[in-house]
Amino acid sequence: MMTEDGVIAGWNSVAEQTFGWTAREAQGQILSQLIVPAQYRQAHRDGLARLANGGEPRVLHRRIEITALHRDGHEIPVELAITAAKPADIRVYVGFIRDISDRREAEAKLEKEAKKNRLMFNIVSMAASTSPFDTILKTALEACCQIIGWPVGHAFIVAPGPSPELRSSGVWFETTKGQSDRIRFATEEIVFERGLGLPGTILATGKSHWIADTDDDANFPRRGNGFRGAFGFPVKCDGRIVAILEFFSEMPVSPDAELLLTVRAVGEQVGRVLERQSAAERQSLLLNEFRHRVKNVLSVVHAVANQTFRMANTKERAHEVFSGRLMAMAAAQDLLVAQKGTGAQFGDIIKAALVGSGVCVSRINYSGPQLVVSSRHAVTISLAIHELTTNAFKYGSLSTDRGSVRISWDVDGNNQFNFEWREIEGPIVAEPKRKGFGSNLLERGLAHELGGRVKITYCKSGLVCKFTGPVDDLRK
Fold first, then answer.
1. What angle do CA 22, 27, 32 make, to 5 degrees?
2. In terms of DSSP bridges, do strands 229-237 and 344-345 run parallel, antiparallel, or are they unpaired?
3. Is residue 73 within 8 Å of 21, Cβ to Cβ?
4. In Å, what is the CA distance from 399 to each residue of 352, 364, 387?
C-alpha cells in the first residue's frame, strides 16, 4: 500500500517474500526508490503528480506486466494491478503484485525451443538446395547466436591433408555492425596450428571447448579484444572435421552443459547437410563421368571401325585388325577400372597396350619416370602404342628377327612432357603415300587430345615418333 506522495504504508508477507524487504524495513520508505527499477522511476513520479493535479489515470484499474526491483538488485517480472482507496482522509493506492518469473521462464523456454526448431529446420532444408558452403556456415552461425544469445560467431575452415590446416573462412556473424572488428583482425594475424587457441584445441581433440574467461586462459592468443567468454565446436563431414564454429561473449560465462548440447546438435545437422550435398555432388560427378566415358569410348570405336573396314583388303583382315584394336582399348579400360578411374601410371599404360598387341616383351625396352595420366587420355595413348606396335610388326623393326623398339619419356625443366618411340635395326622405311588410321591417330588424335605436337620421322634405321606437350595436360 502506498500513499499519494509515494510512501509505503503497507507491506504484507507476500511482499516480503517477493522483494526481500521485511515490513519493518519497507514501511515509510519511498516506493520508487525501493522496488521501482531506475528506468521506470520518472514515469512513476510523473504519474503520481498527474493524479494529484486531477489528471486522468493511465495504469489504475488495469493489469500490466512490468519488472520490479528485488533487494539484491536484480529485476523480476511481475503482474501488477493498482486500485485507489480512501480508508480515511487521505487517498492510498493498493498494488496487487504477482511474481511471474516461473511463467516467463517457461514462456522463454518454449520460445527458445521454437526458435531452435525453426532454425534447425532452416539448416536441414538447405540439404535439398545448392547453397554454397559459405552460406551454410553463415546460417549456422546466425542460428547458434540467436539460440544462445551471444553476439559474435565465426567459422574456421579445416583444409584436408596429412596435417590439417586451419584458416579463417572469412564468414562472421555479428548482432551489431563492427562489433567483431578487433577480434576479426586478431584472427587474421594468427596462424592457428593444432592445439593452439580455441580452434586449435577443438581440432586436436575433435570435441567442443568452452573458455569461461579468456583473460585467464594462457592458450587464448586473441585475448584483450573485447570478448571474455568463448566456446566452439567442430563440424564433421564423413567423419572428418571440415569446419570449426566459434562464438564470443563480451562477459565471462561459465560453461553451460545444456547449451553445449544444443549447439552441438546444430553442428551435427550442418555436418549432415554437408554430407548429403557431398554425396549428391559425387553422384552427379560419377554420372557425368560415366556419360562422358561411354560417349568417348563409343566415338573411338566408331572411328576405329570406319578406318579399319574402309582400308582393309579383306573382311578377314579387317576382322583381325579391328579385334586387335578393340583388345588394346579393353586393356586400357581394364587398367583404369583397376585404378578406380582416377588415372593410371604412364608406364602401366604402355605395358598394357603392348601386351594387348601380342608383342614379345623382350623386344621392347621402355623407361621413364612415374607419371599419372588422367583416365580421359589413357585410351588414346593405349591406342597410339597399339598402332605403333602393329605398324612395327607389319613394316618396321618388329617385322625382322633382330629388330627392337626403345620407348622413353621424361619431363624437362620447362614442365614439358617428352615421349619417343624409336625403332632399331629394322628394314629401311619410307614415308607412305597416304595416311592411314595410325598416322591420323598419332598426328591428329594424340596431338589434339594431349595438347602437344607429334613428329614422325622415317629414318633409315627405323621409324621415330616423338611427342612433346605440357605435362599438366596429361593429368587433366
1. 100
2. unpaired
3. no
4. 21, 13, 14
Residues in the chain, total? 476
3-state per-residue secondary structure call for the chain: CEECCCEECCCCHHHHHHHCCCHHHHCCCEHHHHCCCHHHHHHHHHHHHHHHCCCCCCCECCEEEEEEECCCCCEEEEEEEEEEECCCCCCEEEEEEEECHHHHHHHHHHHHHHHHHHHHHHHHHHHHCCCCHHHHHHHHHHHHHHHHCCCEEEEEEEECCCCCEEEEEEEEEECCCCCCHHHHHHHHHCCCCCCCHHHHHHHHHCCCEEECCHHHCCCCCCCCCCCCEEEEEEEEECCEEEEEEEEEECCCCCCCHHHHHHHHHHHHHHHHHHHHHHHHHHHHHHHHHHHHHHHHHHHHHHHHHHHHHHHCCCHHHHHHHHHHHHHHHHHHHHHHHHCCCCCEEHHHHHHHHHHHHCCCHHHEEEECCCCEECHHHHHHHHHHHHHHHHHHHHCCHHHCCCCEEEEEEEECCCCEEEEEEEEECCCCCCCCCCCCHHHHHHHHHHHHHHCCEEEEEEECCEEEEEEEEEHHHHHC
Q: Do 132-279 and 312-475 agree at the fold level?
A: no
In degrees rounded to 5, what are phi and psi of residue 456? -110, 125
- Contact in structure between 199 and 248 (CB atoms under 8 Å): no
Q: Per residue in 282-339, pLDDT tens?
A: 566 556 645 654 554 565 566 557 656 766 677 777 777 777 667 665 665 565 454 4
HSE-up of residue 248 (Cα within 13 Å, Cβ side):
28
Cell numbers placing 228: 571474455
Give me the half-sphere count of Cα atoms (radius 13 Å) on the Cβ side of residue 159: 8
> Residue type at 397?
S
CATH node for 2-99: 3.30.450.20
Instruction: Judge if pTM exceeds 0.70.
Output: no
Q: Check: CATH 3.30.428.10 for 132-279? A: no
Q: Which three cell numbers stand for residue 348?
A: 602401366
Domain ranges of the chain: 2-99, 132-279, 312-475
Alpha-carbon distances, residue 78 vs 69, 70, 378, 385 (angstroms):
10, 11, 79, 89
**Chain segment 376-429, per-residue pLDDT in tens:** 677 778 778 877 887 787 788 888 888 899 999 999 888 888 999 999 988 888
Superfamily of structural domain 312-475: Histidine kinase-like ATPase, C-terminal domain (3.30.565.10)
